[in-house]
Design brief:
This protein is α/β, with parallel strands linked by helices. It is about 40% helix and about 20% strand. The protein has a single domain, classed as Rossmann fold, CATH 3.40.50.
């Protein structure tokens, strides 16, 4: 029942507030993402995806699908939220791009074994109840010798410790009120217009590496994204030169894990 409830809350959240930067069309979404996280393009490898069969697990509004398709990949997206699937199809169509987008669950992918040359999952699996099962499914649908790239929230980030734990948990008193960091993250991390509280899990580097390896992936590498000074109340108003220096630190809000089948 817990897993069913978590998934229902996820659908509720992203039906009301589809993920992604505020934008009126597909091009605006792409521009917003590039401004928010310019490092994602290289980490997800859009440029070297031409001709590949790429699956995006938890495709949201289709930002990564569009980027991969613009680079020449053959794209497939899957998302638990029907509204996301509708929007992803719409955005591919707006840009004159082809792709298949389906409603489905990351923990039970509706594809045969060894179907894809790359599987990407960007900012999604920290919301699923059974992360190990989702990773096993990713491994199952990868062709031999191909790559998975998974991006999730980072427990070792400045955002987690300074913004969530210190600011909201301690200084604002929410840790006493919510009784756990899991509840605090569920209340604070995803912007919700309806008070939805999706599951939000943070991961450590070694933990994520072990999970990837346990799923059967090899040559696993995990690193954090660059630190974004805007991610914490203590750093967002620093002088620009200080912020530029901090951005070189690998203390960002995301962990990027890659592994081969």
């Amino acid at each position: 029942m817990r897993d069913v409830d978590a998934k229902a809350r996820a659908i509720e959240q992203w039906t009301a507030d589809p993920c992604g930067p505020p934008a009126e069309d597909a091009r605006g979404l792409l521009i917003g993402r590039r401004e928010y996280a310019p490092w994602m393009a290289s980490e997800l490898g859009y440029a070297d995806s031409s001709g590949l069969d790429v699956l995006d697990v938890g495709c949201g509004q289709g930002i990564d699908l569009c980027e991969y398709a613009l680079a020449g990949a053959k794209v497939t997206g899957i998302d638990l939220t029907p509204r996301h699937v509708e929007l992803a199809r719409q955005h591919l169509d707006e840009l004159g791009l082809e792709g298949q987008v389906l409603v489905g669950d990351a923990e039970s992918l509706p594809f045969g074994d060894e179907t894809f040359d790359r599987v990407s999952s960007n900012g999604v699996l920290h919301h699923t109840p059974d992360m190990p099962q989702a990773l096993r499914e990713i491994r199952r649908v990868l062709r031999p010798g191909t790559e998975a790239v998974v991006i999730v929230y980072n427990r070792g980030s400045g955002h987690f410790w300074l913004e969530q734990f210190l600011r909201w948990g301690v200084l604002k008193g929410q840790l006493l009120q919510e009784r756990s960091m899991a509840n605090l993250l569920s209340a604070n991390v995803e912007i919700s217009s309806i008070g939805a509280r999706p599951q939000v899990t943070v991961y450590g580097r070694r933990e994520l590496q072990r999970m990837m390896e346990d799923a059967g992936l090899h040559d696993v590498r995990v690193r954090a994204s660059p630190f974004n000074p805007d991610d914490t109340f203590l750093t967002r108003h620093l002088p620009q030169q200080w912020g530029s220096g901090l951005s070189r630190l690998r203390l960002g809000w995301y962990l990027i894990a890659r592994g081969r089948s």
